[in-house]
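User: Okay, second chain of the day. Same drill as before: sequence in, structure tokens out.
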Amino acid sequence: LAARLARYTGNTTYAEWAEKSWDWMYDSPMITRDWKIWDGLTVKNNCSDADQIYWTYNVGTLLAGATYMYNYTDGNATWGQRVSGLMNGTNVFFVQSAGLNNPPKPGPPGGEIMAEVACEFPIAQTCNNDQPSFKAYLSRWMAMASIMAPFTSDVIMPRLQASALAAAGQCTGQPGGSACGRRWYQTVWDGFTGVGEQMSALSVIQSNLISKVDPPVTADKGGTSIGDPSGGGGGDNHGTNVDPVLTKNISTGDKAGAGVLTALTLLLVLATTWWIIT
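Assistant: Same drill. Structure tokens below.
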């Protein structure tokens, strides 16, 4: 969020918060030095241990933010290195085609079909109702990354293209013969369908159109949203347009009156309850 606002508004405060957010994440166990992005931290040991599980949207979220900052800083080398690292972090989510209903082959090298490895493997399937939608977010953010940081495009676009073709091959399920399945690395519908599966298939397919549209606008180039960067930062200065009732000091009389009204309301509730019961 800070990265997107920094690029849209040009406000350096947002950029500073993006840097702070990155530093906190990178210094925590959530980002490993080989670019695994864990889903969260456990409360044991003062949040010093990661939960050792990763999802597509975790690395996708950070990749989007990092590429926005890379673009905002006109190709800053530090942000470029972070983008490259996060691109490496996506590798685990791309596998090779497994044909019919066979287990997937590990990838890479050669893996270009997106998979939610935390719950799509093994055959048993452990994805809940939310998790089948996660590939939609990685698809969208990888497409955006290819625009915000063009040096990533040569890796991203072949993966989005292969994943889109594979996802379309899963969209032959019932009802109607057009419901989309979950395991894109298989060449026949896997029997799963739902909102998450539909979202992911639609997102990866339409992400291949990213080169046909203009890049995200900014406040100076095409943007129409008008914000107030100072909003919420006034401290005790409430301004002159606030209703005086909201800032009035509570007197003893006010408290007494509130007590009487509360007591009367309680008596009314009790009387009504008694009347209904009897």
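DSSP finds ten helices and two strands in the chain.

User: Thanks, on to the next one.
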